[in-house]
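Open question from group meeting: does this chain pack into something compact, or does most of it stay loose? Before anyone orders reagents, we agreed to write out a predicted structure and look at it together. Recording both the input and the output here so the notebook holds the full record.
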Amino acid sequence: MLCRAVAVELEVTRELNKLLYSVETMYLNIVREVVEYAVVNNVTSATQLQRLFYSKYRSEYQGLHAHLIIQAIRQAAEIAKSFMERRRKGLVDKPYPEVKAVSIRFTEQAWSYEQFVKSIAPVRLNLSLLGERREVWLRPHKRFWLYWWKVLNGEAELASTLIIRRRLNKWYAVFIFELKPREEEPKSIVSFDINENTVAVGKIDLASTVGMVVNWNRQYVTPQLYEIRTDFGKLAKRYEKTRNMIIDRLKPLYALPNGKYVNIMNTREFRKRVKRLRERGRKVGRVRQIANELTKTPAIIVTEELGENPQESMINEIEKDELRHRIKQTPFKSIEKAVEDKALERGSRIFHVSSYRNSRVCPIHFTRLGETNDWHTLKCPFGHLVDRDHASVMNMAWKLTPEAWTKGVWWDLKSLSKNMNWRKHEGKSNPLVPYEIVKYIHATLKEFKASFEQSPAVLARGSPMNPAGEANEDWARKPPRFKATPTPQDGEEVSMPSSLAYS
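Structure tokens returned:
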């Protein structure tokens, strides 16, 4: 199940505001005391902590609902367990965690869950606050109504736990919706490769790769190859420069008598200034834009298997500290997780293929590419130039086809064919992909596979779409716009370079 949280502002009167503050204060005191005890005595079991503290807090806070006390103890157990795990890894220096703020968790018995779910258009809820139920009105927005419509259609369910939290002196109710993954027929195959400042995308439209469309106009067979500009590397370089400026300005304030300086990055003033830069928020926004762009329509999404920590393997042979920092700041795993999560919500499926030699093999001839003066451009032995990012996404799509893994892994197919028993694999297909989809991909890749006899190799081209028998009609009308030209969405910068650069 997929979880989505939606925060809705509460309409709070002065009296209700005081009650919520009182409940929050009691809840926070319980969490702090239980966390301190759990860390000091090495107790992380929520059941054991509940046996020790439940009776005490029931008598101490008599007006507080019993389920709120239980939820406070369980929340304290989660915080203590997380702190002890981080302390085991050497990531904390304090004896126990400092709990500054909490979110109040209302279980099904502490708020009007049954009444809320049965309503067609819920705009209010009842909360158990200090011995009595209080009616609270909501200010729903379009995001809430979107998921509520899915609840009414049976595509989602509302979780029974309600979270009440305060932010900037405003109270919000956080509803958690559990979405069911959609099942849609894929309409395209999308492969993407994550780089420092761009995301290379290759898209093959399944509907236009078979039937009369291909015979009518072969430009539809050509995959759409384009890049989404992210500028994560430029963003990291910019913020690194800004942080160094802040450190230089704060150094005179934290000078020691012996001439050295206190570690500025551990000071409160530095953290307060860096917090205003909003570096993390901008990264999250760009990651979500990429996920939205790649999952607009139901598709088979292909990407590389990155592993647990891809940055570490990338910076092993890099000596420049600045480049190492930029690579470390590129959110490879965050993009992959966001795309995977969004794909399930919109009916797409994501597959991971091996990253072995994706950007070093010609997607047309399956030969090893040679180097040129440009790091991003490689040369095929058959005479044409290939962009390594586009070669990578094309080879990913190849690896979904039957027996195409041999072309992506081995250089010399002639020596392979002598030592391999092809009859053993005859008639078999990839179990991860439906057979009909495999046939579509295979037919598509066959169309833009060039001949070995011609040099330099070019993509397959059809006859002009000209009803006048190939007469020149440039004076009468404009040529048709290429259908693969992407449209920028939500402020994204999308460029459309050619798929291959020919010498």
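Observations to bring back to the group:
The radius of gyration is 29 Å.
The first helix runs from residue 14 to 40.
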